[in-house]
Amino acid sequence: MAAAPTSGAQTTGRPVRLPRSARRKQLLAAAQEVFVAQGYHAAAMDDIAERAGVSKPVLYQHFPGKLELYLALLDVHCDALVRRLQDAMAELSDNKLRVEAAMQAYFDFVDGNGEAYRLVFESDLRNDPAVRERVDRVEQGCIAAITQTITSDTSIPRERAELLAVGLTGAAEIGARYWLASGQQVPKEEAVALMATLAWRGISNFPLVGNESS
Questions:
Q1: Which residues pair with 214 in a beta bridge?
Q2: What is the DSSP letter of 2?
Q3: pTM of the full predicted structure?
Q4: Which listed residue, of 74, 146, 161, 164, carries a Cα 20 to 30 Å from 99's Cα?
Q5: Backbone angles phi, psi at 208, to 5 degrees
Q6: Do 15 and 9 meet the contact criterion of CB atoms below 8 Å apart?
């Protein structure tokens, strides 16, 4: 049985007229479902148009090809993850809470929005230069947000702070993905707390600026 079309479309007659931004959002939602279910290489523009309940010409009016559509999806989700982490670092002043917020950002990302994390972390197109650039950008964006916080609050030189940030983001990503893949056997709130405690016990050993031991 064919899947029901994404909201905002109809199955018979002409597609419902939507503002361009709303149509684009609808097409991206349909494309995400197809890419997550089938992978990039197996997915076809026909499948995406059918899922959205529009004609292929309508789809091509917004995206000239499958790669452009995939890259647009990556941009949406990469930017969302980086922004979530940046906001957590900026809005909180307690560093223990910041570590927990960083873990929370990754767990929320892998646990939400229709398995969008697979497009970023498990893409079958990661060797494509444009895709690789976006994946690298989200990794560097998250690392930069945490590095900036570490260098602002401690006396650690930037290159060492960056290495610590790499370790923290790597633990957050791998921990969150393992938690999801293993069937979420540990409640999410507890899993975040466990990972945050592990990270905090390491990073809290570095003295804050102005509190260095003499």
A1: none
A2: P
A3: 0.79
A4: 74
A5: -70, 155
A6: yes
